[in-house]
Amino acid sequence: MSPVTVVTGGSRGIGAATVRQLAHAGHHIAFCYRTDTTAADTVLRDIHPTGVRAIAVQADTTDPEQVDALFTAATTQLGDITGLVNNAGTTSPVGPLVNLTITDLRRVIDVNLVGYILCAQQAARRMTTGGAIVNVSSAAATLGSPGEYIHYAAVKAATDTLTIGLAKELGPRQIRVNTVSPGTIWTDIHTISGVPDRPARIAEKVPLGRAGEADEIAAAIVWLLSDAASYTTGATLRVAGGL
Ligand code: NAP
Asked: What is the distance in A from the centroid of ligand 1 to the CA of 16?
């Protein structure tokens, strides 16, 4: 039986790279996005030649009803869910913590933590024969991101704890839960932070001398979802060029 995997935020960046690699690995895929239907359609078109079944669902992961609709669409159209990639995330303009607005704070918590928990609940309820969940966190969780986005780093640390607890809670049901912690990766998320060229700027601080590519994160996610990782749960796989 082919795996059936839900990827949140699969229309762009790390999520889109993950959808493409999962399709080549034979996963049927339901991915969601929030606004960019054109980008979602492009990903669907790209993976069509692989022959897997795939759907793109417009669903905001912070809304419990839309999350329920995403997982219901995945189950009814593709079959029982065996995988979840909690990836849809956001940040806010860089700056010191004292300048952070309550709107930006609440949004970062809502998307990066509440959304992950809502999707994990749906997956845990629906994975009846085991499965695997990957939470996309950030190296920021241990670096703290001073002067940039401490609130984002703190929320990503909460993601890491979500993995630890869920791995223990779901292990007896043969559901593995792991974290991938990317360093700075070339995606559009840096436009939201107001520093689109951030990956170029941080290169000299990274031991490997460069920012990463979305495909380098996707490869780690695909491995953690695969049978090759059958005894790996509760782990954090840092993919950050040495940072
Ligand atoms: P990105 O390029 O900005 O893409 C974000 C994706 O998530 C898009 O498909 C977007 O869809 C979707 N999305 C955003 N909010 C959503 C919501 N509320 N509901 C549903 N979908 C939503 O981001 P990325 O850089 O690939 O980041 C992916 C993950 O990696 C995030 O969790 C991020 O925190 C983490 N990460 C990224 C980096 C980095 O340097 N890029 C580093 C560490 C960790 P729309 O376009 O339709 O809104």
From this structure: 10
Q: Where are the domains of the chain?
A: 4-239
Question: Which residues are tagged catalytic?
Answer: 152
Contacts of 18 (CB under 8 A, 6+ apart): 7, 10, 85, 87, 217, 218, 221, 222
Could you tell me where the beta strands, DSSP code E, fall in 42-89? 54-58, 83-86
φ/ψ (deg, to 5) at 32: -115, 165
Record the pTM. 0.98
- Give distance in angstroms: CA of 227 to centre of ligand 1: 26
At the topology level of CATH, where does 4-239 sit?
Rossmann fold (3.40.50)
Structure tokens at 69: 């609709």
What CA–CA distance (Å, rounded) separates 94 from 147? 7
Residue with tokens 């790209």: 46
Q: What is the pLDDT of residues 9-21, one digit of tens each?
A: 999 999 999 999 9
Classify residue 147 as exposed, middle or buried by CB count within 10 Å of its CB (0-12, 13-18, 19+). exposed
